Amino acid sequence: MSSLNDSHCTEKLMALAHQAYRGGDLDYSIQLLQQLISCEKDHVEALGLLGIIELQRQNYQSASRLLLRAAELKPEDADIHCNYGNAMQMTAQWDEALSAYERAIAHASDIAGYHINYAITLEKTGQIERAIAAYDA
Q1: Alpha carbon distance 124, 119 (integer Å)
Q2: Is the overall model pTM greater than 0.85, yes or no?
Q3: Which terminus of the chain has a lower count of CB atoms within 10 Å, N or C?
Q4: Is 126 left (phi over 0), alpha (psi -120 to 50) or beta?
Q5: Of 101, 106, 107, nearest to 83 (Cα)?
Q6: Residues 73-131: pLDDT tens digits?
Q7: 18 three-state secondary structure
Q8: In contact, 74 and 80? CB cutoff 8 Å
Q9: What's the pLDDT at 124?
Q10: Distance CA 115, CA 14 (A)
Q11: Cα-to-chain-centroid distance, residue 131
Q12: Which residue, 105, 107, 108, is CA-closest to 133?
């Protein structure tokens, strides 16, 4: 029965963290997410949201570490790959950013934002022809 209670507690913490995040209370959201991760270190949703917050706070090293871990745990999640690509782009790790965007596109080719981020990164690396093709995709 404790696993049901643990699951309910985890869901409640995650819901509160999302609510705090949407309300702009990043500090409280971080506190809740860290509490959740301390109990369940591989909680993909918590790692992902904490990574997004770290991106917003321009803590790119922390963001990339969290998002990479989330992507390793849930490799089919295109959003996580895209967010990881964003962190890599912000630290000028172009090859890693491009790879992350390629993985995002492979899992959800219908999301225009993934193609745009990919094209922007190609453009920043001087790969203009590939960037144009990516914009057209």
Answers
A1: 9
A2: yes
A3: N
A4: left
A5: 101
A6: 999 999 999 999 999 999 999 999 999 999 999 999 999 999 999 999 999 999 999 99
A7: helix
A8: yes
A9: 96
A10: 30
A11: 23
A12: 105
